[in-house]
């Protein structure tokens, strides 16, 4: 973990200096982009390069990553999917691709991961028993899950350090779960530890005021990382979903609201109506919003380490109720302010 942190820290610092020369920066516009100065994009490259380098060294010299059910083929699929996201993200950051083109990279990354054998063989039924999945059912579930995770972190990446902080919690919780006696998957724990280190090294430069942003490739890659970890750890999707619970529900809320306002074409049209934007409008600072999200993610993630499947379902329902209450409160405050 510490080696990954150091590599990511140094790689990110290099990108802070290099990316402006490539003229791939996020320029303030006074509306959605309210930061004080132009900030370099492409920060996700540092996270990807760190994870890829660590995995390559370990796979080449040891069997510490392949001692369980995850093999070289799955890691290769993950890295190829990540590379696709980096290329697609660079093109998007450089040329501002329309949504119909920007979605190509995440779709290809998810399909490559599935083709490499990243799959869910069974799920724990919260009402008792085990649900065994056919191959096609696993493919559909993994595709939906990976796309959902990628677009959750992509939409979450609206404030300095927000997506990176929550993703760090997700990777850390998968690591902790993989080290428990009930599951004990040292290979998955090592993979997750690499992810935690890579995210933490980047986070130093990404906390407000950020010196660099994840960029489109990075914002989807961190979701791809968490989504993949949840799958290869034996279908621990419920645990990851609890960590990402608030942003997942926020994304669902925003999609429904945009759809109702303008149909499917309006879904990917950016605005400042996400939960984190509404909290800023209430007077929260960026650091307070990031800390709040991180604490909620950590609390529900830690709880997931001790909860059984049915209890995780109840926790998700409780989180949903909290989000509905918060959404109603914020909408009412917004209407009052415009009255």
Summarize the structure in words.
The protein has 339 residues and is an all-alpha fold. The protein has one domain (2-338). Helices cover 71% and strands 3% of the residues. The protein is built from 14 helices and four strands. The strands form two sheets. It has a two-stranded antiparallel ribbon. Strands 3-4 form a two-stranded antiparallel sheet. A hairpin with a 5-residue loop joins strand 3 (122-124) and strand 4. Helix 2 (44-61) crosses helix 9 (215-232), helix 3 packs antiparallel against helix 9 (215-232) and helix 10 (237-243) runs parallel beside helix 14 (309-338). The chain is globular.
How would you summarize this macromolecular structure in one to three sentences?
With 339 residues, this protein is an all-alpha fold. It has helices spanning 2-22, 44-61, 72-95, 99-102, 104-115, 135-156, 162-179, 186-206, 215-232, 237-243, 245-262, 275-281, 286-304, 309-338; strands at residues 25-26, 39-40, 122-124, 130-132. The chain has one domain (2-338).
Task: Draw up the topology in text.
Blueprint lengths: L1 H21 L2 E2 L12 E2 L3 H18 L10 H24 L3 H4 L1 H12 L6 E3 L5 E3 L2 H22 L5 H18 L6 H21 L8 H18 L4 H7 L1 H18 L12 H7 L4 H19 L4 H30 L1
Antiparallel strand pairs: 1-2, 3-4
Helix pairs in contact: 1-2, 1-8, 2-3, 2-8, 2-9, 3-5, 3-9, 5-6, 6-9, 7-8, 7-9, 7-13, 8-9, 9-10, 10-13, 10-14, 11-14
């Amino acid at each position: 973990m510490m080696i990954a942190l150091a590599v990511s820290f140094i790689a990110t610092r290099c990108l802070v200096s290099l990316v402006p020369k490539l003229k791939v920066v996020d320029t303030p516009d006074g509306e959605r982009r309210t930061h004080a100065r132009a900030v370099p994009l492409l920060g996700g490259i540092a996270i990807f390069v760190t994870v890829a380098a660590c995995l390559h060294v370990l796979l080449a010299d040891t069997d510490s990553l392949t001692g369980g059910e995850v093999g070289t083929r799955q890691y290769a699929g993950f890295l190829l999917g990540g590379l696709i996201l980096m290329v697609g993200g660079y093109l998007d950051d450089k040329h501002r691709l329309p949504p119909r083109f920007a979605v190509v990279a995440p779709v290809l990354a998810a399909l490559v991961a599935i083709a490499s054998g990243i799959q869910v063989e069974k799920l724990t039924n919260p009402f008792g028993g085990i649900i065994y999945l056919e191959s096609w059912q696993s493919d559909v579930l993994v595709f939906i899950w990976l796309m959902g995770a990628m677009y959750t972190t992509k939409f979450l990446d609206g404030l300095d350090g927000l997506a990176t902080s929550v993703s760090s919690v997700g990777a850390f919780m998968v690591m902790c779960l993989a080290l428990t006696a009930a599951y004990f998957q040292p290979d998955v724990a090592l993979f997750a530890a690499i992810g935690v280190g890579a995210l933490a090294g980047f986070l130093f430069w990404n906390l407000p005021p950020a010196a660099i942003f994840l960029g489109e490739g990075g914002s989807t890659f961190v979701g791809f990382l968490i989504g993949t970890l949840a799958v290869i750890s034996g279908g621990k999707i419920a645990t990851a979903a609890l960590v990402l619970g608030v942003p997942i529900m926020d994304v669902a809320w925003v999609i429904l609201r945009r759809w109702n306002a303008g149909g499917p074409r309006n879904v990917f049209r950016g605005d400042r109506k996400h939960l984190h934007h509404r909290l800023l409008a209430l007077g929260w600072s960026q650091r307070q919003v990031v800390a709040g999200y991180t604490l909620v993610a950590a609390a529900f993630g830690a709880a997931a380490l001790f909860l059984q499947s049915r209890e995780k379902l109840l926790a998700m329902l409780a989180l949903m109720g909290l989000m509905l209450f918060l959404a109603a409160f914020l909408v009412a405050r917004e209407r009052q302010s415009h009255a």
